[in-house]
Design a protein that fits this description.
- The strands form 4 sheets. Strands 9, 10, 11, 12, 13, 14, 15, 16, 17 and 18 form a 10-stranded antiparallel β-sheet that branches.
- The chain contains 8 helices and 18 strands.
- The protein is an alpha+beta fold and 389 residues long.
- The longest helix has 50 residues.
- The N and C termini lie far apart (108 Å).
Length: 389
């Protein structure tokens, strides 16, 4: 038995060696020559392609662009879905086999019933979209106030500021505004000016705090002479981003208090600010309002926010501040206190932080008792709410 196993083992080993020799012979005789031919051909082709690389790339790109353009023109309209009804049906998650029956309602709303595989879905209502032009209007628009309207909501609806609406409707009281009240809405944020005798495009621009170029650039402003920008008396001029100049509503008979704050002598600013008055913030710091308003119906004293020298304590023409005090704190920092009813200081004297400057009032361009407080520096106006923290 053991001799049989030995014979089989030797025979198996000999047979495996025979197969290896046979495979080696087949590879050398048949496969290697063919591989050599293939490699040679590949070398020639690759070399040719490498030497002419990029030669036809621009042609291929040009033909590709032309092909894309042709496909866009021919197949584009059928691929673009711009039908609000179709979009509404597909938004329901229904199949592609459907029939849509259209009905036109009196309100302009499209109604329809979708049927898919014999199943009827609920009625789909689609409101048509309204395209709103970004171009400015040429003329003043008369708007009838609707229920729930405020000047703020109306301003957002027409893209203008509340101040622009107020300036155009000075006789309208917002608190007494009712449904149906007609408001004149300016075409853009700013002022609509009626030209008076002697006025020019430059004097009008200066009056409303804008450049003459911005008035000229408004596309609907017309001139009697396009070279000199001459104006006709009574014509309407739109002043984009213009602001109505301050107006004096009330001039007090007496603005000097019976008891004055004594001179503080030599002082220097501490750099630490205190609140100049008691009350609530009725208006914050904005691009067109370079200070804060502290309102208090009971009035009350106004205090120096820091030590310094009084440089203004009077009523100045056409500034809108009414009775106001200005203090120079040194290092280019000044504070302003506006709409005061009376002064307790005089120009030239010094005050310590917390000294009384006067009483809160409603002089100048003011609609109620409050203090308008500003902090001015050489680098511009500073938000008092930041400095007072």
């Amino acid at each position: 038995m053991s001799s049989l196993k030995t014979f089989i083992s030797q025979w198996g080993g000999d047979f495996l060696r025979y197969l290896r020799v046979l495979l080696t012979y087949f590879v050398r005789v048949y496969l290697q020559p063919k591989f050599a031919v293939f490699e040679a051909a590949k070398t020639v082709v690759v070399g040719k392609m490498y030497s002419q690389r990029g030669k036809y790339s621009q042609i291929i790109i040009n033909y590709s662009i032309v092909a894309v353009m042709v496909l866009s023109v021919t197949l584009g309209p059928s691929l673009v879905v711009n039908d609000s009804q179709t979009q509404a049906v597909f938004s329901l998650g229904l199949g592609s086999k459907f029939a849509f029956a259209q009905e036109s309602s009196g309100s302009g709303v499209v109604e329809g019933t979708t049927q898919v595989l014999g199943l009827t879905t609920e009625t789909v209502e689609i409101d048509p979209l309204t395209q709103v032009s970004d171009k400015p209007r040429a003329d003043i628009f008369e708007y009838a106030v609707e229920d729930g309207d405020t000047l703020d909501s109306i301003g957002k609806k027409f893209g203008v500021t509340v101040d622009s609406i107020k300036w155009q409707n000075s006789s309208v009281n917002e608190k007494k505004m009712k449904t149906g009240t007609i408001l004149k809405i300016p075409p853009v944020t700013g002022v609509v000016h009626i030209v008076k005798s002697g006025e020019t495009i430059y004097s009008i621009a200066k009056k409303y705090g804008v450049s003459a170029q911005s008035v000229v650039d408004f596309p609907f402003n017309e001139f009697t002479n396009d070279e000199t920008f001459s104006l006709a008396i009574g014509q309407q001029i739109v002043v984009p981003d213009g602001e109505m100049p301050d107006e004096i509503f009330f001039i007090p008979r007496s603005n000097l208090a019976s008891s004055l704050t004594p001179n503080a002598g030599a002082v220097s600013a501490t750099g630490s600010w205190i609140w100049p008055a008691a009350g609530s913030i009725s208006q914050g710091f904005k691009s067109w309002h370079k200070g804060i308003d502290i309102a208090n119906r009971s009035g009350g004293p106004i205090l120096a926010a820091d030590s310094g020298k009084v440089i203004v304590a009077s009523w100045l023409d056409n500034t809108g501040y009414g009775n106001r005090v200005m203090i120079d704190h040194g290092n280019g920092v000044k504070t302003l206190y506006g709409h005061m009813s009376s002064f307790s200081v005089v120009v030239g004297q010094t005050v310590k932080r917390g000294d009384k400057l006067g009483m809160m009032g409603s002089t100048g361009r003011s609609t109620g008792i409050h203090l308008h407080f500003e902090i001015r520096t050489g680098g511009g106006m500073v938000n008092p709410l930041v400095a007072l923290k």
